[in-house]
Amino acid sequence: MSDRLHVTDHAVLRYLERAHGLDVEAVRRHLAGRVAAGARLGAAAVTIENVKLVLRRNGVEVSVVTALKPGWPSRDQSDEDGG
Q1: Is 59 part of any domain?
Q2: The domain containing residue 71 runs over which residues?
């Protein structure tokens, strides 16, 4: 057996939620409220609390798809794959 063990982001999130009482829905609402104006204005990303939240559009729906360090690029990945 390999000495390497990967713990997924999903497992970390569920652990924080269930073992430490993290209210995931409250965090989701907080982030949605903070990026709403940028999403309406067509922003590719919104920086809040020193974290860059990357937005992706699919028709009329906008999703926050990841959180990056503020200096990291947030280019639209669909531009690279012809989408």
Answers
A1: yes
A2: 9-80
**In contact, 35 and 25? CB cutoff 8 Å:** no
**How far, in Å, CA of 58 to CA of 1, rounded?**
42
What residue spans of 1-83 are helical by DSSP H?
9-20, 24-40, 77-80
- The candidate with the shortest Cα–Cα distance to 35, out of 24, 51, 43, 46, is 46
Rounded to two decimals, what is the model's pTM?
A: 0.76
Q: Is 68 part of any domain?
A: yes
Count of domains forming the chain: 1
Buried b (16+ CB within 10 A) or exposed e, 42-51: ebebbbeeee
Q: pLDDT per residue over 7-38, tens digit each? A: 999 999 999 999 999 999 999 999 999 999 99
